[in-house]
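2024-03-11 09:14:02 INFO worker-7 job=invfold-0412 stage=load source=structure_tokens
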């Protein structure tokens, strides 16, 4: 029997993601870093390109918020206990990268 875990499986990436900081679909299609698709919206509290370039590459492309928030997902449910990993929402709001 499968016990209930507080975590869910890592979700699949979306094939297209747009945020206030640009269209990330080309980055998803080409498998390239989110900084290549980043466009600042010019607000004083917006992330800058340098801070985006410091992030690991997004692995799970999907709209997320707030920036820098963490989620824990199951990466392997065949282990006991299940294997989980923390992911962080990119400052681009376009998805999660492993912490």
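2024-03-11 09:14:09 INFO worker-7 stage=emit residues=99
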């Amino acid at each position: 029997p499968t016990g209930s875990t507080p975590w869910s499986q890592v979700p699949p990436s979306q094939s297209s993601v747009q945020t206030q900081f640009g269209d990330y679909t080309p980055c998803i299609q080409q498998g390239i870093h989110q900084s290549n698709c980043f466009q600042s919206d010019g607000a004083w509290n917006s992330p800058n390109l340098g801070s985006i370039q410091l992030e690991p590459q997004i692995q799970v492309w999907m709209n997320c918020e707030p920036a820098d928030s963490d989620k824990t997902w199951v990466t392997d449910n065949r282990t006991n206990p299940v294997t989980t990993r923390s992911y962080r929402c990119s400052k681009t709001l376009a998805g999660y990268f492993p912490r």
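2024-03-11 09:14:09 INFO worker-7 stage=report msg="The first strand starts at residue 8 and ends at 9."
2024-03-11 09:14:10 INFO worker-7 job finished
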